Amino acid sequence: MINHQLWQLMKVNLLYANPQLTRRQREKGKTGGALYRSLMLQYGLIGVLFIFIFGSTMLVANLYQNVGIFTNLLALFTVLGLGQTITALDNVFFESKDLKDYLPLPLNQWAVFIAKFSIVVLIILPMELPTWILFVMGGVHSGRFIGISILVGTFMFILFYLCLFLICSVGIFSFAQTKVYRSHQKLMTFFDDRLINDRDVCGHLRHEHR
Predict the structure, then answer these.
(1) How far apart are CA 109 and CA 155, in angstroms?
(2) Nearest Cα residue to 94 out of 186, 12, 198, 24
(3) What's the pLDDT score for residue 199?
(4) Mean of the per-residue pLDDT values for the chain?
(5) pTM of the shown model
(6) CA distance 83 to 175
(7) Residue 91 to residues 69, 148, 157, 198: CA-CA distances in angstroms?
(8) End-to-end alpha carbon distance in the chain
(9) Regarding predicted confidence, which is higher, 99 or 142?
(10) What is the rounded CA–CA span in Å between residue 155 and residue 142?
(11) What is the distance between the alpha carbons of residues 97 and 101, in angstroms, rounded to a whole number?
């Protein structure tokens, strides 16, 4: 039961993570399962594009000898990750204002929050995948065995991603408690209010529990 709930909740929060992308897909006539698949495809394409553009640079440049390139790319993806993760967390947890929609439903409270965190992790991951290649190729260019480079690079990427996510989570949840955030909330987001007013967003969840 919990797995089914989690999956359905993740699908709902996928709509909130990037309201502009959701709106564009809806304007193309995408609804229901087609909308979810289209959104996931868009994030997947972003990942492929990032890997192609930046991955080709990492394959050509010697990251071990050109430390500046390694540092600049790591800084680029750190800043990009910080911005995108903070925006997604704000949209999914605060701008969506959907928690009240779940109250009448017999949903596991932990499933709601796990689904929200999970969808943020999954949609930011494609944009940060080049960082994994960066760590792996840095090891390869230093002369390490490729198998060791992949293991160490994967470990470094997971550590990097966890630190990035934790920093963003602590930052946004702390900032959300301040008067500055509450006073200027609309200036800090591009959330589409039509998503909040769309009562059909959680309709399939209500239908399943009738």
Answers:
(1) 31
(2) 186
(3) 45
(4) 80
(5) 0.79
(6) 14
(7) 33, 39, 25, 15
(8) 15
(9) 142
(10) 17
(11) 8
